[in-house]
Amino acid sequence: MSDASYRDAIFSTPLDKVARFSFDEQVVACFPDMIRRSVPGYGQILAMLGLIARRHLRHGAHVYDLGCSLGAGGLALAGHLPRDAFRLTGVDLSPAMVKRARETLAEEYPDHDIEIIEGDIRTLDYRASGMIVLNFTLQFLDPGEREALLVRLYEALEPGGVLVLSEKIKAGDEQDNAWLVERYHDFKRANGYSDLEISQKRNALENVLVPDRLDDHHRRLAAAGFSRSLTWFQYMNFASMVAFKDPDAEMTP
Ligand code: GEK
Question: Which CATH architecture has domain 42-170+209-244?
Answer without folding.
Answer: 3-Layer(aba) Sandwich (3.40)
